[in-house]
Amino acid sequence: MTHCRSRLAPDVPAAMLTRRQTIRMLGAASLLMVGGAGCHGASPTPPATPEFTPEEVSALNALADAVIPPDADPGGAALGAVAYIERLLTAFDGGASAIFANGPFSGRAPFPAPSGVASSSCPPDAFTSWVELDRVNAVAWQLNVLGSSAVPGGAPNESLLGTVVGIRAQVHQGLAAAIAQNPVPLDQLSPADLAVAFGALDVDFQSLLIDLVTEAAFAAPEYGGNPDGAGWRFCHFEGDSQPLGYSQWNGTAYVERPDSPLSTPNPGADPAPFTADVVNLLDLVAGVLGGTVAT
Q1: Is residue 188 included in any domain, yes or no?
Q2: How many of the other CB atoms lie within 10 Å of CB of 293?
Q3: Is residue 287 a part of any domain in this protein?
């Protein structure tokens, strides 16, 4: 559940690539902690301690849809933003830290058969338990999520850098400001007015929301978001493939999966071919970096 911040260069024309197209392009590439589709992994369960008031839930769902607007595909709210953020903010409420899902297998992918196809046998879902953090990581994550007040003695460099405001406080303070700034409830605003309201938020809170909502959409479902892999389907990501993998050793040679071969393109048409705008953007980036453009 790390927080990755990546932005387009400010001088890239906004019309070239929408936020939604960017998510489609980059979503699967940023998934380093994932689960997948195939067998039956566990469905997310809500945290034991509710974190948000009904008013905060409505506001957070609306802002999640400002980050990933719904259209033919689900938006940020339907992709589980509230449940994911609530699980993160309450990760230390039960004593043991619910930060990193265990493994190695989620139970969504089956064991391979010698022929390279999926067998009918699946491993148990180990993603539903949590890795025990060592002392250093436990303190670091408590500072990150809960802030200085959660750690005896405060942050290590508090005397020089000041107190650490945790994600929990940042989210609640940001939601309170968003609710106060808008006389009409955020969930009753039109998409255009919601975009304006989102743009009026504190820049740091905007950045935090973008991080959290995209994490919710594309992280493994055990973290609370991405219900039933909906976020993965949105960006055409297959999910975690182990223990099936993509090729198996049959005793004499590696056998590729017929549905996802490694040496040739996958069967069937490209589910989301690049538009001309996306190709232009990639050409621009390649040219700036000194590479060869496609056209």
Answers
A1: yes
A2: 12
A3: no
b/e per residue 45-59 (b: at least 16 CB within 10 A): eebeeebbeeebbbb
Residue 269 in any domain: the answer is no
Identify the top-confidence range among 19-28, 49-58, 108-117, 119-128: 119-128
Q: Half-sphere exposure of residue 2, counting CA atoms within 13 Å on the CB side?
A: 9
Residue 29 has pLDDT above 50, yes or no: no
**Amino acid at site 181:** Q
Range of the domain at 87: 14-264
User: Can you read off the two tokens belonging to residue 34?
Assistant: 């994932």
Q: Dmax of the chain from CA atoms?
A: 70
- pTM, whole model, 2 decimals? 0.78
3-state secondary structure the chain: CCCCCCCCCCCCCHHHCCHHHHHHHHCHHHCCCCCCCCCCCCCCCCCCCCCCCHHHHHHHHHHHHHHCCCCCCCCCCCCCHHHHHHHHHCCCCCCCCCCCECCCCCCCCCCECCCCCECCCCCCCCCCCECCCCHHHHHHHHHHHHCHHHCCCCCCCHHHHCCCCCHHHHHHHHHHHHHHHCCCCHHHCCHHHHHHHHHCCCHHHHHHHHHHHHHHHHCCHHHCCCHHHHHHHHCCCCCCCCCCCCEEECCCCEEECCCCCCCCCCCCCCCCCCCHHHHHHHHHHHHHCCCCCCC
Q: Is residue 183 part of a domain?
A: yes
Domain count, the chain: 1
Beta-carbon contacts of 81 under 8 Å, excluding residues fewer than 6 positions away, are: 60, 61, 64, 67, 212, 213, 216, 217, 225
